[in-house]
Amino acid sequence: MSSxxxxxxxxxVIDYAVKPRVNKTQTAIETAGVKHSMNPFDELSIEEAVxxxxxxxxxxxKVEDIVAWSAGPQKAQDVLRTAMAMGADRGIHxxxxxxxxxxxxxxxxxxxxxxxxxxxxxxxxxxxxQEKVNMVxxxxxxxxxxxxxxxxxxxxxLGWPQATQASKVELGKDGECTVVREVDGGVETLRAKVxxxxxxxxxxxxxxxxxxxxxxxxxxxxxxxxxxxDYGVDVKRRLRTVKVEEPPPRKxxxxxxxxxxxxxxxxxxxxx
Length: 272
Fold this sequence. Notes:
This protein is of the alpha/beta class. The chain has six helices and eleven strands.
């Protein structure tokens, strides 16, 4: 195997430090006027792609191209520019109108427009074909819908091997990819030949901060704009959100003076 062409999907989501609020109609999370940023798991994906290129200078197949890809409203270009500032070579933006552009209907939500994981996976599969990609690294889930489905669906559509929730990725010169993933009670090591789909977990790496010079350079890197129709796939929604509501407030706890009192109280509550 001579070189790698890596596709890294990224998503614009409500910033992880912001407490989400349900909108007044209880159909979705309120996104207007709320700080957004790149999905944290996608930051790990960009960082790992860049590290693979850095390591390829001394060992393993050469990383020829790193493409950042996002489907969402106009502001999704912000996270693409961030990805390019972190080290991606170019970006592809699939424009999906937001609510202000008439892109959402009642019961539909998410800053990826009206796209569901299957729709995103179909778009990515076409992108892989068009861009001649042989590795896809993406976050295991986005923190807005927590679906944890896109990577697995993409691997199924492509017929590629997959390694989910990766905590370590290594590439051999022959194109063999070794992925360590955490499972209940230990770790699991998987090996597969490229092409492969990898989804990232939190312990994989520590994403770098984009430096000011790299942010300025990212503004000059190519960013191609497309529409879902350009891929010729059906991305319409199959699900409708009926209602969104906050969880009920937790009841306050009680202090007890001894173990016997605690056991007695648990028996009264029917817990034991």
